[in-house]
């Protein structure tokens, strides 16, 4: 089944590289990707300079959100946990907006020069980890439903603070930050992928390394300890991993909704297992495929209006989340 999911990723990538205002035959896409010369020179430019960075970001982004959602659902024991639902993405947005305001105030720079670079990524991850830490403390004291409500409220507070900070940005800065907060896989440049790619790969490796301890947590804290798994150490590992995956991605794409919640449930349904050694590769592949598919739908040659990414991810993910609520899936058993 993992091989089938990998095949789905490959097909989705070929389709998104082929489809757009200018259609490029799939055979020509393969030729371009393998270093050959396309029939038309413009096709190579379209595929390599415009569509490939977007498709790569969508693949990495969907995988990152899927993995982050699975990790959060396991440690918080909440089937509706995810970076977007529990306010982690909002925390990253708050961190970035705060950074934009501070740099604009101190250096007088336009936000167009602020959005990007290592400080930008770091502030997004700091905002994300702040929310994660608050949720982690709350989850030790209350049940899953209260954790969900607390996450929604913390996310709302973060959004309110972002709105307040907008008053300290000039019009140009505000428009740029607002466009970024809309969420898109299309804004990442080739040079930015050299930062995003390695960062998320580190997160993927850390997530897969946590598979065995996460399986232990499925037995509860005492059960995990009997297997030699430290719940505290595992939670810390997971929170830092989610910080890298969700916070790092949000720095480049803005907040992307629903994939982090929906992908783990879809992977459990497809793979028929609760074993994280299988689920984690599964959510990486399925999340990557769905990220690319969502981006493909956004960039279909629509005749009138441009679709927003979060509108498409809502149509893909919201029915899955609703299904998870209605059938009361706990997400910790096959």
Task: Give a description of the structure.
By secondary structure, the protein is mainly alpha-helical. It has a single domain (2-326), classed as ABC transporter involved in vitamin B12 uptake, BtuC, CATH 1.10.3470. Helices cover 75% and strands 0% of the residues. The chain contains 15 helices and no strands. The chain is globular, with a radius of gyration of 20 Å. Mean pLDDT is 87; it is low at 329-334.
What structural class is derived from the secondary structure elements? Answer: mainly alpha
CATH class: Mainly Alpha
Number of domains: 1
Q: How many distinct beta strands?
A: 0
Radius of gyration: 20 Å
Q: Could you name the CATH homologous superfamily?
A: ABC transporter involved in vitamin B12 uptake, BtuC
Averaged pLDDT: 87
Q: Helix fraction?
A: over 70%
Q: Given the C-alpha coordinates, what overall shape results? A: globular
Main sheet attributes: strand count, strand direction, barrel closure: none
User: What oligomeric state is this?
Assistant: single chain
Number of helical segments? 15
Low-confidence stretches: 329-334
Q: How much β-strand is present in the residues?
A: under 5%
**CATH architecture type:** Orthogonal Bundle
Looking at CATH, which topology would you report?
ABC transporter involved in vitamin B12 uptake, BtuC
Order of helices and strands: HHHHHHHHHHHHHHH
